[in-house]
Amino acid sequence: MRRHDGLISLTHDHHHGLAQARRLRIAANGSDEERLRASETFIDFFRTEALAHFREEEEVVFPLAVDRPGAEAFLERVMIEHLRIHAIVARLEHELQSGKVSQETATDAAAALRSHIRFEETEVFPMIERVVPEDELEILAVRLGEGSERPDRRARTHAPE
């Protein structure tokens, strides 16, 4: 099923997040140096893109569904997952600063982000498309789409000039 236009920019973010998680997962099984480099890249992605993405979901998207029947359990889980990802990334950052990232931590960070994105794409976004009225979803297309002020999203959605 095609994603509603109001959620497409977030789905594009998710594709980028899955690519970052995949790189970290592969590096987790590599050398110490590969884990360090991939962890640094993952943390940079988290700070510059994922945090802004989480904020958009939490402040713009999820409030549209919060009082709708059947949405509460989905939203509780997604918010808890956001917190877990913050905690795992903090652990990854601590290990990176110490100069040694464990295979377990790198794998955990990659798996947590991948699992979270899959949950949002297969469960949360379809629920939002069901329970939020069309006119409110259309507003999301404007608020989160091409008009986004996020530099990372503009860089991915616009061709270089």
Structural class: mainly alpha
DSSP, total strands: 0
CATH topology: Four Helix Bundle (Hemerythrin (Met), subunit A)
**Terminal-residue CA separation:** 33 Å
Shape: elongated
Give a topology summary.
Layout: H1 5-28, H2 32-65, H3 72-98, H4 103-131, H5 134-144, H6 151-157
Descriptive account of the structure:
Helices cover 82% and strands 0% of the residues. It has 161 residues and is mostly helical. The chain has a single domain (5-148), classed as Four Helix Bundle (Hemerythrin (Met), subunit A) (Up-down Bundle). Helix 1 packs antiparallel against helix 2 (32-65), helix 1 (5-28) runs antiparallel to helix 4 and helix 3 runs antiparallel to helix 4 (103-131). The longest helix has 34 residues, at 32-65. The radius of gyration is 17 Å and the shape is elongated. The two termini are 33 Å apart.
Key phrases:
single chain, 161 residues, Four Helix Bundle (Hemerythrin (Met), subunit A), 6 helices, disordered C terminus
Short description:
This protein has 6 helices and no strands. The chain is an all-alpha fold.
